[in-house]
TrEMBL record:
It comes from Sphingobium jiangsuense. The keyword Oxidoreductase applies. The keyword Oxidoreductase applies. This is Catechol 2,3-dioxygenase. It holds the Pfam family Glyoxalase. Keywords: Dioxygenase, Oxidoreductase.
Length: 311
């Protein structure tokens, strides 16, 4: 039994229109059915973000994860403080629906994996005594580049009132591995075979909630170019361009209409076999970035937590 990758995040929002504008500007492809919006990466036939309109305010509804061994997971969930539940109203009764010890809803489905991404030209960097790109320019004129299009949803970061308890549930009930953590404030979980450094992560907060969804792009140039373009169109907060210590990925975060975040990333660490990986407990100064601009004051603020909305 094991989680294999993240599939999507479903959010309840007051009005899908601002979300449609934001995620379209981010490079996702939208389809609308009534008060629901399904936003997918170009070339994929499934949504990575689902918005359901009509809510009083934005709330995480559930996260969908691809997994195998659903029967074994169902048996393991109660022992780790979770519950197996019926499908919510309006959703198909397929796969396995569970709530974690804090009440966060997770939908586990056993399905075929996405097709592998096609290889892109290698990001060639000339270094001292190591010239790998000669007789050509690395950069074309700005007009040569089209809009940045995310390739896939790589990971999600969720809020938790008790990060170690959330990690224990993901590892013991859902078969994931702890990749790394920073004290009891933030932790990163991977799958056990052929995994990005993290697939699901948790940050400490008074309650559960959605912090960000992170989308892979081709290279650091696309992180920078896509991030700047989305900031200009969204007109809200951003954090980047920078690079994480934990996971090593280049990042640029842009704030969505409800205070959560969208991340472009490239070059994340890869864990081929979790049995050969040793998790590190990092100091707090390495919990967010190795380098980058100052962190926005509300970057780790959970606008979904009761009593936190107006802070």
């Amino acid at each position: 039994m094991a989680v294999l990758n993240v599939m999507s995040v479903t959010l309840d929002v007051p009005d899908i229109a601002p979300g449609l504008d934001f995620y379209a500007a981010a490079g996702l492809v939208a389809s609308v059915e009534g008060r629901q919006a399904h936003l997918r990466c170009e070339g994929q036939d499934r949504a990575s973000i689902v918005l359901r309109g009509g809510a009083a305010r934005k709330r995480l509804h559930h996260v969908t994860l691809r997994a195998d061994g659903l029967e074994a997971i169902a048996k393991a969930v109660p022992a780790q403080g979770g519950t197996v539940v019926a499908a919510p109203a309006g959703f198909e009764d397929g796969g396995l629906w569970v709530r974690d010890p804090h009440g966060m809803l997770i939908h586990l489905i056993d399905c075929a994996p996405d097709a592998p991404l096609a290889a892109r030209p290698r990001f060639a960097v000339n270094g001292p005594g190591d010239i790998v790109r000669s007789n050509r320019s690395a950069m074309l004129p700005q007009a040569s580049y089209g809009p940045v299009r995310p390739l896939r949803l790589g990971h999600v970061l969720l809020f938790s009132p008790d990060v170690p308890v959330s990690v224990l549930f993901m590892t013991e009930a859902l078969g994931m591995g702890l990749a790394d953590r920073a004290q009891d404030v933030i932790a990163f979980c991977c799958t056990r075979q052929g995994s990005d450094h993290h697939v699901v992560a948790f940050a400490k907060s008074p309650g559960i909630g959605f912090h960000h969804a992170s989308f892979q792009v081709a290279d650091p140039d696309e992180v920078g170019r896509g991030g700047r373009a989305l900031v200009e169109q969204a007109g809200k907060g951003d954090w980047g361009f920078g690079r994480h210590t934990i996971g090593s990925n280049f990042f640029h975060y842009i704030q969505d209409p409800w205070g959560s975040w969208f991340e472009y990333y490239s070059d994340i660490d890869f864990i081929e076999d979790y049995s050969a990986w040793t998790p590190t407990n990092y100091p707090m100064e390495d919990s967010l970035a190795n380098w980058g601009p100052p962190v926005p004051h509300d970057f780790v603020h959970n606008y979904e937590a009761v009593g936190e909305e107006e802070a």
